[in-house]
Amino acid sequence: MDTKSGGKRVRARWRTQDTELTLLALPTTIWYILFCFLPMFGLIIAFKDFKIHGGFLSNVIHSEWSGFKNFEFLFKSNDAWVVIRNTLGYNAIFIVLSIAVPVTLALMIGQLHSGKAGKFYQTLMFLPYFLSWVVVSAIVWAFLSFDKGIANQFLADLGKDPVNWYMEPKYWPYFLVFMNVWKGLGYGMVVYLATISGIDSTYYEAAVIDGATKWQQARFITLPLMKLVIVMMFILAVGRIFYTDFGLFFQVPRDSNSLFNVATTIDVLVYKQLKTATVGMASASAFVQSVLGCVTILTANWIVRRIDPDSAMM
Amino acid sequence: MSTRNRVEAETGLDKFNRIGTFTNVGFHAIFILLALVCLVPVLVVLSISLSRIAGARIAATSLLQSR
């Protein structure tokens, strides 16, 4: 380890603390090497005419190069525009709501007179996070089923005609956005509540003495101090803007053909095409998503750095 | 927060830095509604998990897809 001292480089002593920190970082480093860096070798499948028979490595090495042929289905498909629009559109809405709603609720829950009640509500709001999308799909079906659904029973009680929800695309953008916010609300709030609880109370005491209202305290103390975490969550979310939650877009709409235009994203299209397509095409799709995700995360970070250098990640 | 700490906190500036009672009740109402929206589906899933399949098919109407 080299450090500069008076213009001269001196070798710093390896301390016990360094050993402890290295040992602490070792499992994560090994995990990343094994599960993130080594599998990158498989990216070459995207450029090969890969067929599943026999050993994996032997197939990768001996299969023929196909250039960008595997990428063509993504861009030449008639549904490419719809799928990319859905992926980016939904993710843009999810990013905004997954920050705005938990931040607002975290600010509100921190103001409750009873701390115990706040913790109780927070725990309950965390519950949907543990449900799988398959189970959520069954719950949604219980509400929206045409003949037995709760929604149509309610409409019948009001004397209105039942709606075939799974055949009506106009409702589904709202349903999908609601389901996403509902499921991720509790998880998102934890991060922001942790940030709020870490803010020094003397800021608020000084603000009270100066006559600041609760709204002014939130606007001029809490939100500015949360900015770093909010920006970090934003940049991380932007990095996954080309990925979508497969369970949400495949399980919840129950693969209804009528909902194709509003509920098909890149991941769902790849899954559907995999029934007839090859492993190479799936790899090509994942490769495109990763590269575009990397580009968007760097762009978002660059924009953040231009606006506020202290909030940028790199 | 212990009773002693709570008394100390309430005699400090915290006493003057709280939302109004009406706002507090409003916030509670919002959070109770949100908590129910999150809790009820989980309870339904739990109750279905603990029910006999034949009974669940009848009582839980369409929660399980009829065949």
Automatic annotation (TrEMBL), chain A:
<dbReference type="InterPro" id="IPR035906">
    <property type="entry name" value="MetI-like_sf"/>
</dbReference>
<feature type="transmembrane region" description="Helical">
    <location>
        <begin position="21"/>
        <end position="47"/>
    </location>
</feature>
<protein>
    <submittedName>
        <fullName>Sugar ABC transporter permease</fullName>
    </submittedName>
</protein>
<dbReference type="Pfam" id="PF00528">
    <property type="entry name" value="BPD_transp_1"/>
</dbReference>
<dbReference type="GO" id="GO:0005886">
    <property type="term" value="C:plasma membrane"/>
</dbReference>
<keyword id="KW-0472">Membrane</keyword>
<feature type="transmembrane region" description="Helical">
    <location>
        <begin position="88"/>
        <end position="112"/>
    </location>
</feature>
<keyword id="KW-0813">Transport</keyword>
<keyword id="KW-1133">Transmembrane helix</keyword>
<feature type="transmembrane region" description="Helical">
    <location>
        <begin position="124"/>
        <end position="144"/>
    </location>
</feature>
<dbReference type="GO" id="GO:0055085">
    <property type="term" value="P:transmembrane transport"/>
</dbReference>
<feature type="transmembrane region" description="Helical">
    <location>
        <begin position="225"/>
        <end position="243"/>
    </location>
</feature>
<comment type="similarity">
    <text>Belongs to the binding-protein-dependent transport system permease family.</text>
</comment>
<feature type="domain" description="ABC transmembrane type-1">
    <location>
        <begin position="84"/>
        <end position="300"/>
    </location>
</feature>
<feature type="transmembrane region" description="Helical">
    <location>
        <begin position="279"/>
        <end position="304"/>
    </location>
</feature>
<keyword id="KW-1003">Cell membrane</keyword>
<keyword id="KW-0812">Transmembrane</keyword>
<feature type="transmembrane region" description="Helical">
    <location>
        <begin position="171"/>
        <end position="194"/>
    </location>
</feature>
<dbReference type="InterPro" id="IPR050809">
    <property type="entry name" value="UgpAE/MalFG_permease"/>
</dbReference>
<dbReference type="InterPro" id="IPR000515">
    <property type="entry name" value="MetI-like"/>
</dbReference>
